[in-house]
Amino acid sequence: MSNLETTDAVRACNDAVPRLRHPEKSKRADSPFQRKPSWIRLKKPEGPAFYETRRLMREQQLSTVCEEASCPNIGECWSKRHATFMIMGEICTRGCSFCNVATGRPDALDMFEPGRVAHSVKQLGLRHVVITSVDRDDLDDGGAEHMAQTIRAVRRQSPDTTIEVLTPDFRGKKGAEEIVFEARPDVFNHNLETVPHLYPSVRPGARYYTSLRLLDDAKRADPNVFTKSGVMVGLGETMEDLRQVMDDLRAAEVDFLTVGQYLQPTPKHHPVDRFVTPEDFKKIEELARTKGFLGVSASPLTRSSFHADEDFARLKKQRLSG
Question: pTM here?
Answer without folding.
Answer: 0.86
